[in-house]
Structure formats: C-alpha cells, structure tokens
Amino acid sequence: MKELLQWLVLSFMLLIMIYQLMVPPIVGIANNGDFERIMMWEGIIYKPDFTFEDKYFNHINLKFDIIGGQNFDPKWKFVSSELLFVKLSVWINHILSKTGEFDLRILGFVHLVFYAVAMYLIISSVDAHRRIFLIGLSLILVFVFLDVGYISYFNSFYSESSILIFLLLSVGLFLKANKTQRIWFLGAFFIVVLLLAWSKQQTGLIGFLVALYGVRMFFLKNDKKTKILIASMSFLLFASTSWYFINGTPAHMKEAQLYDSVFNGILVLSDQPKEELNKLELPADFERFANASMFNAKSPIRDSTFRNIFFNKINHLDVVKYYISNPDKLYLALEVSADHSFNFRPGYGNFEKSSGMPSKSRSQSFDDWSNIKNQFFPKNLWFIFGFLLLYMMMVIYEWRRAKNKLPVEVMMLLPIITGMALVTPFIGVGMTEIGKHMFLFNVLFDICLIIAVFWLLSKLSLSTKLFRRLNFYSAFIRYNPFKRFLF
C-alpha cells in the first residue's frame, strides 16, 4: 500500500511538471546572455534570422540549430555540472530529431526525470505506516518545489536547474543512506554533492563544508569499508571543489564579477564613493563609474588604461578584506541582499513569442508559493537570521538528545549554508541580477522551513482540539520526524 501511495504521489508530481513544461503555453525562462556559455560546449546556436530581441530577455525559444562540436574560444570555457544534462539531452535529440534541430523541451524533460528521482528518494524515506505524514510531506513538496519559480528553469540552459536538482537529490540520498544504512547511498550522496558544488561558483562552498563533515564522519565510524569510502570521497570532494574554484570560471567572467562587486556593489553602498576608493587604493576619479555595471554603456571594463590600473591593483580577496574591515558596509550589503531575498523570479519572459504573450510576461500558473514569499515574507535581516537562529536552536536541542549525532549535524550545516547563500551574491557581484542570484538561498531556506514546520508539528500538544479532531496525534505527535524520518 505504501509503495502504491508513493507512486501515486510521484505520478501527480510528474503530471504537474509535464503540464507546466510540455503543454502549451510552454513555460521556461528567457536568455539573459548566460545560455551561450553552456550552449557553446555542444555547438548549439540560435537560428540565423533571430534578432537581439528574439534571443534575449523577452521570450523563450524552443528550437535551436546544432553545428556540432565545441563552438567556442577556450578562454570562454565555463564549467558546470549542468553540462551533463545538456550532453544527455543532445544525445537523445540526435535520436529523436528528424530535422537536426535541438528542441529545448528535451532538456526540460531530462531535468524533469532527474528531479522526479530526487522527489522519489525523499518521499520513499518515510516509514511505511506513516501515510498521513507522507501525504502531508508530498503536498508541501508539490506546493513549494513545483512552483513555477523553480520549475521554469528546466526549460532553459541556466545552471539553476542543476542547483535545484542536485541539492534535492543530495537530500534524498542522505535520507536513504541514513534509513537503509547502505554504503552505496552514502557514496552516491558525496558524488551528488560534488556535482552540486560544480553547478556554479556560488555552490562551491557547499562542497568544502560537506568535505569537512566527512572528516568528522570518518573518525566516528567504525566499519572499515565505510571509513575508506568516506575518506576517499571527502578527499575527492575537497580536491575537485578546489580545482573548480580556480579553473571552473573563465578569466573574463571573474573580471566582470570583480568589477561589479566594486562599482555596482561597494560604491553603491556609500554616499562618499571617493572614500571607499581610497580604502581600496584606487584612483578617486573612478567615482564616475559608480553604479555602472559591466553591461552599462559607460562601463570602462574594456578600456586598456582602466584595466591596467584596476585589475593589477585589486582582486576578490581584497573585496572580502574590505567588508571584514568595514563591518558597517557588510551590514548594509546584507540589508540589500535581504531586501531582494524572496523575490527570486527574474523579470525575463516565460513564454514563446508565438504564444501571443507580451514581452517579458511571467507565468501566473503554480506561482502561489513564490508570490507568498515575495509578498508576505519580511525582507529584512531580523526575520531571516531570526528564523535561522531558531532553526539552529531546534537542531541543537535534538543534537543534545540524539544518540547518533552525525545525522543531526548535517541539519546544522543547512542554516550555515543558507546564511552564506544570502551573503555571497552582493559581495560577489553587487547589484547585478541580485534577485536571480538569490535562487540558492531560496531553495535552502525552503528546505529549512519545511524541516522546521514538521518538527514543530511533532511537538504540538495533544490537548489542541483541532489536532485531536484531525487525528494528527498518530501522524505527528508520536511520530517525531527528527527521530524517525530525518535521522
């Protein structure tokens, strides 16, 4: 009966995703200029008659030409685990396509399948006799993680798809590893975390933290095979994440990020830009470039004189040092991030031009959760860090009571990573597309929120009439998710 219920739930999820991604009007996200760094690996290009307006920001495009091979200069090399999905979809496309065109819906379907696997791993971790809990969890997963703000990325070449898929896959594999105690689930967990760390530079910090967690796990495990697996996987995760940080992003992108972190970041926070330039030991006349992102017409990023001065004088470490030595500016940066925290849907079009929808129209189907967050969640540091603090207190409470503390400690990593996901976008690239860069923060925040909600339900008093009537006692009160599900 449990297996049937799980498959019914999964089928329901698949129908919702197929409806959004495959049934006209098809939903995706228009290109902001990031697609090409993924497309070029497989020689995917736009139709020759497409204008700038056809390609960027306004509408999605489903049909592309494939010229074959890697169509790029090596200096533009951008590495992302999203390429695994693209390569698989191109291979499938070669089998199915009669015209030789690449159909973006095939990539969307590949994303959908792996996402369904992640959902299955999560819901199959629920104990067999906990049907009410399974139904409750499934409804929340549908409401939160099938929201168009997340799913629309699947019909695109953005790396956010791999972030979402690998993050939820890692959650599912961790739950299965803890429930079954099978070593291959644990090995798969480390591999998926590696792929998550390779999604984009922002997620690399997750790889380092999980590698450090692996060191602690190594010293607390007794089984020899498990210790060897943990040691090798932790080393692989740390080494590969280090390589990715150094080599995964091409030089021109690192330069653009550094430029934006100063001129569209640090200088935006100050009423006296010259003072901040002085702290960075940069010329005062650079003040005129304040608020000018690299995409701005007055940006000097391609000027040789500017480049010789700026990029020889400052690097990303200098930006970090600046915020450490100026905590008031760090606080302002956090406030800006918090102000954009829950508005994670970029203002790019979700529909094809042929759908008849106006330029930059956004889908309003299955957008309830993203709307609730954007309209009703307080966008301030007190709410965000207050929630993360309460979450951490909750986990510490369970950690002190737990006999097996290792699984609980994974839950401790979540608020730390969530906090870092709030901090890094503004420090890394300033105001440039800051809402889109809050994607990782939102996924992590939602995971923490779901855990906190079910933990709170498990602690509610039996004396509450509502829960007595709904018979939630058997489903939640006696069933502590921290003991029976999460750990």
* Domain module count: 3
Let me know the largest β-sheet. 3 strands, antiparallel
Strand order of the largest sheet: 1-2-3
String of helices and strands: HHEHEHEHHHHHHHHHHHHHHHHHHH
Which blocks of ≥5 consecutive residues have pLDDT under 50? Answer: 472-487
Helix content estimate: 55-70%
Radius of gyration equals 23 Å
Integer average pLDDT: 89
Tell me the span between the first and last alpha carbons. 24 Å
What does this structure look like?
By secondary structure, this protein is mainly α. The chain has three domains: 1-180 and 349-365, no CATH class; 251-325, no CATH class; 329-342 and 377-487, no CATH class. Helices cover 63% and strands 2% of the residues. It is built from 23 helices and three strands. It has helices spanning 2-22, 36-39, 52-55, 82-96, 104-123, 131-145, 148-151, 160-180, 183-197, 204-220, 224-247, 251-266, 273-279, 304-313, 316-325, 327-339, 368-376, 381-401, 405-429, 439-459, 465-469, 472-477, 481-484; strands at residues 44-45, 63-66, 102-103. Strands 1-2-3 form a three-stranded antiparallel sheet. Helix 1 packs parallel to helix 6, helix 4 (82-96) crosses helix 5 and helix 16 crosses helix 19 (405-429). The radius of gyration is 23 Å and the shape is globular. Mean pLDDT is 89; it is low at 472-487.
Features:
single chain, 487 residues, mainly alpha, three-stranded antiparallel β-sheet, 63% helix, disordered C terminus
